[in-house]
Design goal:
The protein has 414 residues and is α+β, with helices and mostly antiparallel strands. It is built from 13 helices and 8 strands. It has helices at 12-21, 26-33, 55-69, 92-109, 150-164, 180-183, 192-204, 212-221, 251-254, 260-277, 309-318, 341-344, 346-390, and strands at residues 2-9, 42-46, 75-82, 114-119, 128-134, 224-229, 233-239, 246-250. The protein is elongated, with a radius of gyration of 28 Å. This is MobA/VirD2-like nuclease domain-containing protein.
Length: 414
Amino acid sequence: MSTINVRPSRDAAGSAAYVLYGHGYKGRVKLLSGEPRTRAGSFAIRVAGDNTATPLAFVERAQALAGAHGRKNQLQSYVLAFSPDEFDVTKQEDLDRIRDVAVELAERMHSADFMVVVHADSAGKHGHAHVLVTNHDDLTGGSLQRYTAWKHGLRQLNDELMRDEGLQVLPDPEEPKPDWELRREAFKPGGFEQVLGDKVLAALIDSRSANQDAFEQVLAEHGVALAVTNRDGWSYKMRRDDNGKLGRKKASGLTTEFTAEGAQQIFDYHAQKGKKHGSTGTDGTGGRAASRYSDAGGLDLRARRRQAADREADECRRGAERVYQADGRGADEAPGSAVDLAAARAALDGIARRRHEDKAERDRKHSRRSRSAAQRERTREAAQRIVDEEVGPGSTVGIEDGPHGAGDDDLGFG
């Protein structure tokens, strides 16, 4: 079963850098440089008119369109999250399946550029996809109007897609509370709250944070302190970049994930995982869990040429204008090697060829239909001339269905 939520973004570069590389200013640098190693478990992109689209090209077009039309929001940012019981984030085929469902969702919602980034590194190990959609409808030329709120069609569309894909649907849907990855869009890009929240999340899902004391130690590594009072509950403090003063923000003012209750659920998860491996906060090899968001290039995945170009071609047939790039991994490769966007482009040659063949076949069928329609029209006109000669001009008796009308009736000539 899945939940879906959406929030507008005024900073396409910041949103893209975050979902691809994690928090921190270095994410923007990596975006600009085209760094191939990302934290994406699976990836797809479509940019109109660009068959070799990159994340930077996606961002630049979103910025240009917003600027040209005077729009504040450059993107609509969606998060499609699934239950851990439905998809196993340790299996590449499951991550690719999440990607495919997210792509289908993007295409059903809008005629617009989009980028899908699947994450496997959440605290609860639930697979989820970030779907960034440019705030520009390529058909109407206007901003996105549909499916920009949970209550206004988005939840219903998501449920419909889940049924079509044979996936579970929530029996009693409630609007999901936005977690930090979506909530961060509400704050000023690069501002105190956004930077603070990114650091708190990085510390919270660090595998060492199995209790409050350990969490505070990891927070300190990020330059953040936890303050606990009876009046305000949990708050977080950090030195501000703008004035050098110590800033403070209540946990509930950021997201419920960062409150004592929300954090405890994540602590319990880390503690349980640590017991399973025999040591708190480490995986079976004694290394830090792969769920750390603080590693900007956390999924160091070795990309290779797609072995499933035919599958990609089939996907392209579902949307003639879609440019679809997967991450280049085969099904036998486990997560842990880098998403090389350039390598995935090798499959595009085959896709383009098949698309050309499909178009040629459609053109042939259209030509045949056109010839058949012209022949029918000529036959109808000939029949009309016969009627005009026998019955009189203007009559259409018995010719609506052509020379072999329904029931093989004669023309009533007597």
